[in-house]
Design brief:
Shape: globular
Number of helices: 14
Strand order of the largest sheet: 14-15-16-13-12-18-19
Number of domains: 2
CATH architecture of the largest domain: 3-Layer(aba) Sandwich
Number of strands: 22
Distance between the termini: 79 Å
CATH superfamily of the largest domain: Aldehyde Dehydrogenase, Chain A, domain 1
Bound molecules: succinic acid
Strand content: 15-25%
CATH class of the largest domain: Alpha Beta
Structural class: alpha/beta
Radius of gyration: 23 Å
């Protein structure tokens, strides 16, 4: 009997995409379904030598690719956008099989990922320089934008497609060549994306895809090679900081989208229903496995009990199940290790005095499920107040005044996103200005949008992805000085 994932895998190359060829390897590694623990596929395991060969290809075709017309590159992105949406069901099924999120959310991710292709297809034709008169009037300043060169794009498992297209699309738009290293937990979605790009007409050598179980050896080797000019990474702050050290050697440009510890602040003048809806989205989108997930829910003390009771009621109807089960609202977490981390944070919060209101345990049986969990009265000393949860656990604390809310919110080394719920416009702007984050959701639990600049400050990263800003990460500005006396 065919396995349930057979259809989803149809036409997915399980090889490396290297210099325009799908190349098999004897070394392979398994991809697990976190809902069952079953191995769904074995993919080719790229070596360090493969990475060097991919960089050779990037280097060889880079000049020709950079010289293509913006319209040509835009057309490739448009075709990839259409092809991705034509295959939305297959992409969504692969995401659910290898990452676990409910199928409806996987479909949402495919649309989100495709939006980056559409956005950067549009941005490709708007790359421009400037002509300026120098203040002295004796010279002219001409600027032009040029691709940075070969890029290494390292992507995480939590959004197996969205976190890749938001790097690949601007790199293609800018005229860069690239090596993509998908997370070893979720290479299948990326390999199907590679097939879509090949069909869309991306030339050989421009886009190389290297799934590997030797991540750090591969990135070390590539960062040591002076031909590599750009690193874009999404993942933990710990790994990001190690990569930054490696990138420093050859002064490689970096974009780093790292960890978060998002405060979700609810003032007593907020619309409570809206705040609860926002909290459900900010906390349970992607099962909480997102760097923009609400990590610390801070509620003004006079409404805290009403908020907690309403949130507990909503959470009791959340269903943790296999993402293919139509009833599932939350899938499994990615691994047993991650589940143990989540459980340790919950147990520590309770030991520090927090009250367990909903859930609070791993679900026995196959798969890496953790019950949707609510802990309230979480003290600042609890680990959960400082560490990224990356799981379906809502941790609520209280505050008395606006000043205290801001102080608590900023009491973290992270600075990715924050959420604020209030019906007072002046307060909304005042608090948004005071928050030390790269993004703020005002009366909404979702900030992500292909047209917006996504990124953080402090230990949450460097650079922006998406929006008008996203393409700049892949372009160098060159200035030409022109002597005005000659004309
Ligand atoms: C992330 O969790 O890394 C990104 C989430 C998003 O783009 O919304």
């Amino acid at each position: 009997m065919a396995e349930p994932w057979t259809d989803a895998l149809a036409g997915v190359p399980l090889d490396l995409l290297l210099d325009g060829q799908w190349q098999p390897r004897d070394d392979r590694f398994g991809v697990l379904n976190p809902a069952t623990g079953a191995t769904i596929a074995e993919v080719a395991d790229a070596s360090v030598a493969d990475a060097t060969a991919a960089l050779d290809a990037c280097d060889r075709v880079g000049g020709q690719w950079a010289a293509t017309s913006p319209r040509h590159r835009s057309d490739i992105l448009w075709r990839a956008y259409q092809l991705m949406l034509d295959r939305i069901e297959q992409f969504a099924a692969l995401i659910t099989f290898e990452m676990g999120k409910p199928l409806a959310e996987s479909r949402g991710e495919v649309q989100y990922a495709a939006d980056y292709l559409r956005w950067f297809a549009e941005e490709t034709t708007r790359i421009h320089g400037e002509y300026r008169v120098a203040p002295q009037g004796d010279s002219r300043i001409i600027t032009m934008r040029q691709p940075v060169g070969p890029c290494l794009l390292i992507t995480p498992w939590n959004f197996p497609l969205g976190m890749i297209t938001r790097k690949v699309a601007p790199a293609i738009a800018a005229g860069c060549t690239m090596i993509v290293k998908p997370a070893h937990e979720t290479p299948l979605t990326c390999l199907l994306m590679g097939a879509v790009f090949v069909e869309a007409g991306v030339p050989a050598g421009v886009l190389n895809i290297l799934p590997t179980s030797h991540s750090s050896q591969m990135s070390d080797a590539l960062l040591a090679d002076p031909r590599l000019r750009k690193l874009s990474f999404t993942g933990s702050t710990g790994v990001g900081s190690t990569l930054l050290k490696g990138a420093a050697r050859n002064v490689v440009r970096t974009s780093m989208e790292l960890g978060g510890n998002a405060p979700f602040i609810v003032f007593d003048d907020a619309d409570l229903d809206q705040a609860i809806e926002g909290a459900m989205v900010a906390k349970f989108r992607n099962g909480g496995e997102s760097c923009v997930a609400a990590n610390r829910i801070l509620v003004q003390q006079d409404i805290a009990e009403r908020f907690n009771a309403a949130l507990a009621e909503r959470m009791r109807s959340a269903v943790a199940a296999d993402g293919f089960d139509p009833a599932a609202t939350v899938g499994p977490v990615i691994s047993d290790k991650q589940r143990r981390h989540v459980d340790a944070l919950v147990q520590d919060a309770v030991a520090c005095g927090a009250e367990l209101r909903v859930g609070g345990a791993a679900r026995p049986g196959d798969g890496f499920f953790y019950e949707p969990t609510l802990v309230t009265g979480v003290p600042v000393a609890a680990r959960i107040s400082r560490e990224e949860i990356f799981g379906p656990v809502a941790a609520v604390s209280t505050f008395a005044t606006e000043a205290e809310a801001i102080r608590l919110a900023n009491n973290t080394e992270f600075g990715l996103t924050a959420f604020v719920f209030t019906n007072d416009l002046n307060r909304a702007i005042r608090v948004a200005e005071a928050l030390e984050t790269g993004m703020v959701g005002l009366n909404r639990g979702l900030v992500s949008n292909a047209a917006a600049p996504f990124g953080g400050i402090k230990a949450s990263g460097i650079g922006r992805e998406g929006g008008f800003e996203g393409i700049n990460e892949y372009l160098n500005t060159k200035y030409i000085a022109l002597d005005a006396s000659l004309f």
